[in-house]
Write a structure and sequence with these properties.
By secondary structure, the chain is α/β, with parallel strands linked by helices. It has helices spanning about 20-25, 40-45, 60-70, 85-95, 140-145, 160-175, 185-190, 190-200, 210-215, 220-230, 270-280, 285-300; strands at about 5, 10-15, 30-35, 50-55, 75, 100, 110-115, 125-130, 150-155, 175-180, 205-210, 235-240, 245-250, 250-255. It has a 9-stranded mixed sheet, sandwiched between helices. Strands 3-8-7-2-4 form a 5-stranded mixed sheet. Helix 3 crosses helix 11, helix 9 (about 210-215) packs across helix 10 and helix 11 runs antiparallel to helix 12.
Length: about 300
């Protein structure tokens, strides 16, 4: 298999809200908040009109994008044998993604992410991980990992305890490892661990400018470039309106964003960028072409609601 994604199996529930909803619920716009109380999370959902639900999770979104581009792709993520779990599995299979997980009844329900889209197209996420966050080494198939050219991990999945053991097992059995740093809060929460991964364990790292700047506590972007050059690994940084950059030793390649887009929703922009880049990478595109494919995919996704093309 070309690419195997391992990530949080989360059902995305997409809703449009006003800025006042974000303020009233003490949320920070454009970030992801984890909920640990199931009832508190359900209360948020009570008065909202649901636009649509999708089998999501950051890496799952990327893997579906890769499958849509014609590459053989698979996914491992923990769900429960419940209504959302069944729809999650069906959603992936419809997209020709091989799902390497056998669901059973768990104590916690299948994970859910409430994606709140404000009028400025920014998305604010509220996530109840449910059983997704309880992934352990027994949930991860060594065989599937060894038979994949690349595994793709997400920072959201990393946590002390069982998820870390699942992560380690995946990395130790992989031919090549790519990972997305996922989110600024994620980076700040696990900084020493993520820094160790980027320096010593990963072959390819995806980050946005905020995430990597925070990770290495850089004062400016030149410091990010210099840090990345020294690693001799592939570091890809998305920079919003400044486009994207890939650094691999002394090779530094940049690409611009596409202009005059009708931006509706930024959900999944990073996920689909990674899908486009990895599609190029496994099909032996040049670094410039990989960046351009990533930009093309992210440009398409932000002109519609949700993280699926």
């Amino acid at each position: 298999m070309k690419i195997l994604g391992i990530g949080n199996a989360i059902v995305d529930v997409i809703c449009k809200v006003d800025d006042s909803f974000i303020d009233q619920n003490k949320l920070t716009k454009s970030t992801m908040k984890l909920f640990f109380d199931e009832n508190e999370f359900k209360n948020l959902l009570t008065n909202l009109k649901v636009e649509k639900t999708v089998s999501g999770g950051s890496v799952a979104n990327s893997i579906v994008g890769i499958s849509q581009l014609g590459d053989e792709a698979g996914f491992i993520g923990k769900i429960s044998d419940d209504k959302f779990g069944s729809s999650y599995e069906e959603g992936l299979k419809k997209e020709n993604v091989k799902y390497f997980y056998s669901k059973k009844k768990e104590k916690l329900p299948t994970g859910t992410c409430l994606i709140l889209v404000t009028p400025d197209s920014e998305r604010t996420m509220c996530t109840f991980l449910g059983t997704a966050g309880k992934i352990n080494e027994h949930d991860v198939s060594s065989d599937a990992i060894k038979k994949s050219e690349i595994i793709f991990l997400e920072g959201y999945l990393w946590d002390e305890g069982e998820p870390k053991k699942a992560f380690d097992k995946a990395i130790n059995n992989a031919n090549k490892v790519a990972m997305s740093l996922s989110d600024l809060f994620c980076v700040d929460r696990h900084k020493p661990h993520f820094l160790n991964l980027v320096k010593n364990k990963l072959d390819i790292t995806f980050a946005n400018e905020q995430e990597i700047t925070s990770l290495i506590e850089a004062k400016n972007f030149n410091e990010v470039v210099n840090f990345s050059k020294q690693l001799n690994k592939l570091i890809i940084v998305t920079r919003g309106e400044k486009g994207a950059i890939a650094i691999n030793g002394d090779e530094v390649v940049e690409t611009n964003i596409q202009k005059n887009l009708s931006i509706i929703d930024l959900t999944g922009a990073g996920d689909l960028f990674a899908a486009g880049f990895l599609h190029g990478y496994i099909n032996k595109f040049s670094t410039k072409e990989c960046l351009e494919k990533g930009t093309e995919m992210s440009s398409k996704i932000i002109q519609q609601i949700g993280a699926r093309l």
